[in-house]
Write a structure and sequence with these properties.
With 201 residues, the chain is of the alpha/beta class. The protein has one domain: Rossmann fold, CATH 3.40.50. The strands form 4 sheets. A 6-stranded parallel beta sheet has the order 5-2-6-7-1-8, with helices on both faces. Strands 12-11-13 form a 3-stranded antiparallel beta sheet, with no helix packed on it. It has a two-stranded antiparallel ribbon with strand order 3-4. The longest helix has 15 residues. The structure holds zinc ion (ZN).
Amino acid sequence: MLNLLEGFHPGTLEVITGPMKSGKTRAVVFRLDKLQYNVHVPYIVFKPRIDDRFEPGKIVSRAGDKWDSVLIDAEYPHQMYDTLSTAQKEVKFIAIDEAQFFDFSLTDVVRELIKQDKNVLVSGLDTDFRGEPFGPMAKLLCMADNVSKLIAMCSYTNCGADARWTQRLIDGEPAPYDSPLILVGDQEYEPRCTKHHYVPR
Ligand SMILES: [Zn+2]
């Protein structure tokens, strides 16, 4: 299941995916670290402006590792071209974190970057709280040369089985299917196994 690449692969799309708390950002940080120590490939990290869970302008794994990132408006992934065209060095490795929040046109941008011989690494949730494909991720997974599916551990009481779904809870109860995809306010997310992933209709 786990198939993380190492090294530098121009003209390639890699996708790291999985539920909440499966270590996706940590995997991106690990990859960037290795690239810098070994080959010094000029890189950039993009993330959607919508994600303000941690420090803005950084990607931060739950283990506390931090990397600077460039914030892009989620509705306008084409802004990535502007950033790249003004970079001081030619960027060769592009990491895109929390990709599920970007507009579907992210897939066009990624395709163009691959044609330009960039090594693109995308990470994000493959499914939303309903268990359905999240934003542009499904198409990106189809386009990928290499996919790493990470798993978490089910948070349901005393379970601990392999978790590949993200459970949304509102006031401690499973959120209904028709609650909005992006919800502001009190809510929690937990990794869950298939048996314990509940989406009341
Ligand atoms: Zn479970």
